[in-house]
């Protein structure tokens, strides 16, 4: 079987992804996916949290977010029923941790009866997007730059940029820890997204002692509550040499007994399963033999009338996924 725990559609992520949600699901079925996590981005609440593509008419963009999320949940539930005999559809969303004030909203969204899980993700540092483009990344990095005093490197110098990026990484993992501590997400999304647009995305972060201490703290916290990290293949299609997370972090995670799930983080039909063969080879090179997903079991109504499904963890051997992926070539 093949699966993904992280996906998007252009229908509910316009300007950021492509294709109707049903088209994405139909293509997943044609590829042999047996489980698919639907995880459209959650709505945001402030104008300053909009992405550049949403700024042509900011007020209208913001006003559309909550109705779009409600429409997504309705459509996802309809499609789950329609394709129940062909694919297991898990309904979730990608949590946007821009600041601690989003804790209550994410918790409320996760409590919806049709929501099975959510992905805990960070796409910002100090409120600035870090994966949109180089200019925004630089703004986020510069917001973390040390103040030049007493003979320190002047802002904008090579040494100063390195120091600012180290501080940016530290800030990213501190904000990530706040999200992890507040929400305890079942799936942690693209754990080291901060390296995507870095000046040196392949650097060994262990050489930054303060950053590495934060990485280890965050991993230990996730392992402590039983969360999963995703092996996210989207890093490969974006030009990185390794999926998220990189090898040093993945090795530390495995040393803690941590479990991986698998995601293509697709943003439309064309990206479903992209680079899965490379991601599977990466996991095998780490000694991983299985990844994890979820299975829904419909629950009987409780005394309160709650009909929420029960979720079971399911181990999937890499060999089973490889057998499906081998047919895509």
Structure in words:
This protein is α/β, with parallel strands linked by helices and 329 residues long. It contains ten helices and 13 strands. It has a single domain (2-325), classed as Metal-dependent hydrolases (TIM Barrel, Alpha-Beta Barrel), CATH 3.20.20. It has helices at residues 21-31, 58-82, 103-110, 134-142, 158-183, 209-225, 234-237, 247-255, 276-285, 318-325; strands at residues 2-4, 7-8, 33-41, 88-96, 117-121, 124-125, 128-129, 187-188, 228-232, 259-263, 266-267, 290-297, 310-317. The chain has a seven-stranded parallel β-sheet. A two-stranded parallel ribbon has the order 2-11. The chain has a two-stranded antiparallel ribbon with strand order 6-7.
Overview features:
329 residues; TIM Barrel; 13 strands; single chain; alpha/beta; two-stranded parallel sheet; 19% strand; seven-stranded parallel beta sheet
Summarize the structure.
This protein is α/β, with parallel strands linked by helices and 329 residues long. Helices cover 39% and strands 19% of the residues. The chain has helices spanning 21-31, 58-82, 103-110, 134-142, 158-183, 209-225, 234-237, 247-255, 276-285, 318-325; strands at 2-4, 7-8, 33-41, 88-96, 117-121, 124-125, 128-129, 187-188, 228-232, 259-263, 266-267, 290-297, 310-317.
């Amino acid at each position: 079987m093949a699966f993904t725990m992280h996906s998007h559609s252009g229908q509910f992520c316009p300007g950021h992804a492509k294709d109707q949600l049903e088209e994405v699901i139909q293509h997943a079925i044609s590829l042999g996916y047996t489980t698919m996590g639907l995880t459209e981005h959650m709505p945001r609440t402030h104008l300053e949290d909009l992405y550049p593509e949403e700024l042509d008419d900011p007020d209208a963009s913001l006003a559309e977010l909550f109705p779009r999320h409600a429409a997504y949940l309705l459509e996802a539930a309809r499609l789950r029923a329609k394709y129940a005999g062909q694919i297991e559809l898990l309904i979730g969303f990608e949590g946007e941790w821009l600041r601690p004030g989003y804790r209550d909203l994410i918790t409320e969204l996760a409590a919806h009866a049709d929501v099975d899980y959510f992905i805990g993700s960070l796409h910002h540092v100090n409120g600035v997007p870090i994966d949109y483009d180089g200019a925004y990344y630089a703004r986020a990095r510069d917001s973390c730059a040390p103040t030049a005093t007493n003979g320190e490197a002047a802002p904008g110098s090579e040494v100063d940029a390195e120091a600012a990026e180290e501080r940016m990484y530290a800030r990213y993992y501190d904000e990530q820890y706040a999200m992890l501590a507040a929400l305890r997400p079942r799936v942690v999304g693209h754990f080291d997204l901060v390296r995507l647009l870095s000046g040196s995305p392949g650097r060994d972060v262990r050489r930054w002692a303060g950053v590495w201490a934060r990485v280890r703290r965050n991993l230990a916290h996730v392992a402590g509550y039983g969360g999963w990290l995703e092996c996210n293949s989207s890093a490969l299609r974006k030009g990185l040499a390794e999926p998220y997370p990189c090898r040093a972090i993945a090795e530390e995670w495995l040393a803690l007994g941590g479990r991986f799930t698998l995601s293509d983080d697709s943003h439309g039909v064309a990206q479903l399963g992209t680079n899965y063969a490379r991601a599977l080879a990466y996991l095998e090179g780490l000694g991983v033999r299985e990844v994890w997903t979820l299975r829904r079991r419909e629950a009987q109504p409780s005394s309160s009338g709650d009909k929420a499904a029960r979720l079971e963890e399911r181990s999937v051997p890499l060999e089973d996924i490889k057998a499906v992926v081998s047919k895509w070539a």
